[in-house]
Amino acid sequence: MTDAVPQDPNAAAQKAALLDPSRPILVRQAHLVTLDDTLGDLEGDVLVKDGRIAAVGRELACDGAVVIDGTDKVVIPGFVNSHVHLWQTLIKGCAGDYSFGDYLHYILGAVGKYYEPEDVRVATQLGAIEQVDAGVTTVYDWAHIMNSPDHADAAIDGLQQSGVRAVFGHGTPGDDVGRWYYQSRERHPDDIVRIRKSRLSSNDALVTLGMSIRGPDFAGMEVNRADIELARSLGIMASMHLAVGMYGDYSPDTRTLAKAGLLGPDINLTHCNRLLDDEIALALDLGASISVTPEVEMQMGHGLPVTGRVQAAGGRITLGTDVVCSVSADMFSQMRFAVQAQRMLANAKAHEGGAMLDHLPIGARDALISATLQGAKALGLDHRIGSITPGKDADLTILSWAHERSSPLVNPVQAAVFHASVANVHTVMVAGRVRKFAHAAMQAEAGSIRRAAEMGHRVMAAAGIILPASLAA
Ligand SMILES: [Zn+2]
């Protein structure tokens, strides 16, 4: 028997060289799924210099480069997780069986008020490292736990300490659901202006600023207008949950937002399950992005994932993991849920007419694009990341089938989407900095896993969440 995670005997020395930012890196003879229209898929090399992709091609040479052997490996653009709540990393394991009502009651309505700033920092850092370990190089961290300015600073610290590329989506406090949700009349906290001026003033940094707003599901239209105008005045994107669940009569708020000039390429709409087809088309025409988080949407009754309806309207979804306290935190799972849920819907529709499908409506490559390049577009970052294109930042994920428990590598795209897991993630680079190598991710600060568990138990107990007796002491 071998170890579950095989170790390259030269990995330690190689890793030390890879961590030297002055050394170019040459990934040699790998299967490259570039998602670049000109380059396509090829077997070849990627040269990384000064944080950027310097060249893509065959038999590249570079003096002084550290070489990563690409044998039995697939290089993809790093995953872009366009919707995740990293602060919930502390309370994993409490909400996997929750209905949407349970979630609103215990998570948004109770647990958030017990989070101290340090809880937010530790959760965000650990959650971000978990993302990188799983091949994610960019996250939109939808942080609706901004109970004070210190909470916001702590979340930013956690992201910056993790090494991930992130849009920090500053949200509302998590300590008073009655005030901040349910047709709220409260405008977005103006602490975001301080953050824009003092901490995240650059749009070119590794961690940039976004605004996580409540949108029509949770706030009145005047608040929505003020929130989006505030985001635009700060020159940042905004994201909202939209059209979730089956709560009473449906009102077509998307048209209202569009008519008011409040939709555009700077706006991300997440879920959108209850939108009408023409509202989806309208949002896409105006350039808004649509994020689907299929696993939790199927769990909690958000409605049917809109993957196919977005595609029918000429668009493409982005993917996110969303509530990591409930569901998988990795993009492999979300790609598979998205693809197979859409196929299930299409198959069921064909069956209703007594027929079988000749062609499936969505493919592996669609899922991979949604999980990478389309997410980069949604975050306004596709000029820098999202494809393996010379000149872009080197955000790369290398998947390996080079150990004896792997199945043979026959089709790189299908392998990445249908047959890969976190165990296949060999190397992760963010802006050319190696954050995982030879299956070993960077470590969180010493003792943080134990601290996170204690923090999670504390906030869950305070919120009245029932823990197993062995853990509830
Ligand atoms: Zn969410």
Automatic annotation (TrEMBL):
GO terms for molecular function: hydrolase activity, acting on carbon-nitrogen (but not peptide) bonds. Pfam families: Amidohydro_1 (PF01979). Belongs to the metallo-dependent hydrolases superfamily. ATZ/TRZ family. PANTHER family: AMIDOHYDROLASE-RELATED DOMAIN-CONTAINING PROTEIN (PTHR43794:SF11), AMINOHYDROLASE SSNA-RELATED (PTHR43794). The keyword Hydrolase applies. InterPro entries: Amidohydro-rel, Metal-dep_hydrolase_composite, Metal_Hydrolase, MTA/SAH_deaminase. Residues 74-434 form the Amidohydrolase-related domain. Keywords: Hydrolase. This is S-adenosylhomocysteine deaminase.
